[in-house]
């Protein structure tokens, strides 16, 4: 390899540089203009090294999308943290993802290549990081079915996120309808009153508890005020 490239075959940072270069190329030229030679040149390595470290251009799209996905994962987790029931958490996650993910050029490209990326283990790992704990919480609480493996549930939710993000109508109402009409019936627990009912009851119980705590706090403030006035 020419020394001008400044490449060290044992350099752990080569792949990091390549992914950063690929991100810049993807933003600048879109998927239609994405070329491994340009990525290699921008990263200061040979074209052969770029292919060896990154794989195919489809792999490049996934790597860049995963790199950029963390900001969306953080946002999804903040939204879910503000909700109480498992299904409410997953619903706001889907609404946000369907609206925001297609606006990112790399993630939109990954979603477009559905057949090549939906079952990619790196995508699966990112999805587990985004909503895995909520799904596990639902399984433990009897709200989400346990006769299906956890990883299969995550894969199904990834597929539904892709479909919602690619849909002609990505409005909140349309995505909520998809979630309640198709996703909840597929993943809610089969025994007892149903996972969604359990989840909604939990939400109501939490809301009532919060309301009672607020009333008690106000009552205490009123009593303190009356005591001072005497």
Automatic annotation (TrEMBL):
Instruction: Write one Pfam family the protein is assigned to.
Output: TetR_N
Task: List the GO molecular function terms.
Answer: DNA binding
Q: Which InterPro entries match?
A: Homeodomain-like_sf, HTH_TetR
Q: DNA binding happens at which residues? A: 35-54
Top-level taxon of the source organism: Bacteria
Question: What are the UniProt keywords, alphabetically?
Answer: DNA-binding
In this chain the HTH tetR-type domain maps to 12-72
What is this protein's name?
TetR family transcriptional regulator
Look up and give the organism this protein is from.
Answer: Mycolicibacterium diernhoferi
